Amino acid sequence: MSETSTKLDFRVLDGILEQYEYKKSYLIAMLQKVQEVYRYLPEEAMTYIGEKVDGLSPATVYGVATFYAQFSLEPKGKYEIKVCDGTACHVRGSMPVLNAIRNKLNLKEGQTTCENGLFSLEIVSCLGACGLAPVCVINDKVYPQMTSDAISVILDTLLKEEGVA
Amino acid sequence: MSEDKKTLYIEGKEVEFTNEANLLEVIRKAGMNVPTLCYRPDLTSFGACRLCVVEVEYPNGRKMINSSCTMPPEAGIKVHLNTAKVRNIRKMVLELLLANHDRECTTCDKSGSCDLQKYAEEYGIKHVKQYAQRDCMVKKDESSCALVRDNNKCILCGACVRACDEHQGLQVLGFANRGSKTVVEPMAGRPLGNSECINCGQCAAVCPTGAITINSSQLDGVWNAITNPEKKVVVQFAPSVRVAIGEMFGLEPGVNSTKKINAALRRIGFDLVFDTNFSADLTIMEEAHEFIDRLQNGGKLPLFTSCCPGWVRFLETQHPDMLGHLSSCKSPQGMMGAIIREYVPQYYKDITPENLVSVSIMPCTAKKYEGQREQFKMADGRQEIDYVLTTQELGRMIKGAGIDFKTLEGEEPDSPFGKYTGAGTIFGVSGGVAEAAARTAYEVVTGETLKDVVINDMRGTKRVKTVELDLKGTKIKVKIVNTLREAEKCIREIKEGKADYQLLEVMACPGGCINGGGQPLSYNDSCIKEKRAQGLYTDDETGEWRKSHENPEIKDLYAKHLEKPNSHKAHELLHTTYVDKRKDCYISVGE
């Protein structure tokens, strides 16, 4: 979250705030929009919203942003991988899938985004697709019945597309 | 809500209630009490600490455990305050809180006045080992000169978060993260000193533990100066200190301890004791004349009072475009600081500019910040006021010096700069500055003697008061607000061109300085503001003079040194400038 990492275009933020009429009841929707644009919530953006919207403060916006797991305070990757670890996925082997992804992308425990910024990894509780367990979602595309081998192939394909492999 | 009297039973006693917001208030009005860490009469009920639980028995025989701070009173219920079940719950709550608490009590700033410590003792908590203990300590935030935050002591009761929002509308502090990782902190854990905090200390005033305390790092410096024979230590103390300090020594709130304080300060070792009430009178002379000048010569109106350093910082950080409205007068503390530096070495042979140390005792944590203002620096780089202490810190000094405050024989202050009028003393309560200014402005504008000096509409601890005055044909309207939540509304009115008043008095703390963040802790007394205010009003009534311009020492000061209010010399010493400080804190992002 260093200040030099992003140059925020505050006009974009103004646009989002205008869309939601600067109303504090739309805070979550605003934050979702900001995250859509930047792939995370830059600190300056949260401060800006806290200052501009009546009845909010930077600390309050930060409180909401850190309360919900859907918001990330660090930049997410170009490909957002969600590994479901709900009960059904867990018993059908989501952990080996998760470990395979970590190995492939060199992600240490606690690290969510890989160094080249291409991939970020998130564990979610349940995607509601228990019949397809274990499930992964990469940028809104659902991959059913994953195994460590299957996910490796998928990641290899994506890496090749990006010209990294 | 209806005003009908209904009854319920507390511990078997029939108790009447009307429109009390919650059961806890009914219990307290009946002369009983239950422990609580998070309930504050001035703030919304939060129900966080679960200590105020009581057992409620309904007429149909159903029994329930309920937190009394969130439960509205109901007719016919029987309330039991200390059943075995209730006591067990309270004990477990305390044990769990203590398990996650940094229990370094002896070195904690709150030791002796901590509610958690008190209840742990009252409930005989001797073992907290069966629960997982706090294993990770976080660093204290000592970035602010006014306040210290220690999250290892925080019990997440949310009193500070509510105070900052509901009193000041600032929400500098908020809850961050979730579940067991929840913390109270400014935006993204930034240091308080770098935030939009105005240092009012209302958070510290409601904190039940040592999580937010007054920054008392200047106390050692004061003791060192006092014990150094080379130094001559000169002290001033503010209006509100006199009606509150007694509370730390078993006196009733509102008892006027002016003379005892004079004596105690000398006993501690201060060389000269002056009264900030004197410079409050001086402030009125300058500010009333500035107001009349703006009124008659088309200056910027409404004129904002500038005595409250929280309010000044609020304008400097949130509304720098409004600084032109702010009176150029220094606060009474600032004026006294300048007068002491300029004239004390002239009046006292053994005091030189080099050996003089200037200390002030304030009811206010923001005064510590004001003391360090760039504008209050002297040519040699030192501050005009070296140390700013709070009422609480003075109380600690008195105790530390082994003085029996209760039986202490009163003494007179040093002269000159020790005499004061009733106008100066009511500075400590919301509306007091306006009332004092009106007394002087009336006589200056009309040339007549004002007989009835009390303006009742300006009195009372209500958050907003509007008063119209007729200075023999010159009609003026004065708005008086306390808390910045209300002040913000005034700023909007003015920006929208809807303000029809010419003078705006703002005090950041609810009720004024009497309820400042540096005053003795009093959050369980819902009438504390009224009691302390009454103390100042009585001081006004019983004093020798009631108008600032009648103070003989003020007259003398103008005759000998300053010539007249707003003279060149007065401007040099008693007036100041303000700067846009928005860029100093993170809220200026994107501008």
Defining traits:
heterodimer; A: 165 residues; Glutaredoxin; elongated; disordered N terminus; B: 591 residues; alpha/beta; Ubiquitin-like (UB roll); Alpha-Beta Plaits; Rossmann fold; five-stranded mixed beta sheet; four-stranded parallel beta sheet; 18 helices; 32% helix; 14% strand
Give a written overview of the molecule:
The complex is a heterodimer of chains A (165) and B (591). Chain A has 165 residues and is α+β, with helices and mostly antiparallel strands. Chain A has two domains: 10-67, no CATH class; 79-161, Glutaredoxin, CATH 3.40.30.10. Chain A has helices at 10-19, 27-38, 43-52, 58-67, 87-91, 94-105, 148-161, and strands at 79-84, 119-124, 136-138, 141-143. In chain A, strand 3 and strand 4 form a beta hairpin. In chain A, helix 3 (43-52) packs across helix 4 (58-67) and helix 6 (94-105) runs parallel beside helix 7 (148-161). The radius of gyration of chain A is 18 Å and the shape is elongated. Chain B has three domains: 6-82, Roll (Ubiquitin-like (UB roll)); 93-214, Alpha-Beta Plaits, CATH 3.30.70.20; 219-574, Rossmann fold (3-Layer(aba) Sandwich). The mean pLDDT of chain B is 95. The longest helix of chain B is centred in the middle third of the chain and has 22 residues, at 276-297. Chain B has 18 helices and 17 strands. Chain B has helices spanning 23-29, 84-99, 115-122, 159-166, 202-206, 219-227, 258-268, 276-297, 309-318, 332-347, 366-371, 391-400, 422-425, 432-446, 484-495, 528-542, 552-562, 568-574, and strands spanning 6-10, 13-17, 53-57, 63-67, 78-80, 147-149, 174-176, 183-185, 212-214, 232-237, 272-275, 303-304, 356-362, 387-390, 464-471, 474-482, 503-507. The two termini of chain B are 47 Å apart. The chains are: A alpha+beta (165), B alpha/beta (591). Chains A and B meet through helix 3 and helix 4 of A and strand 7 of B.
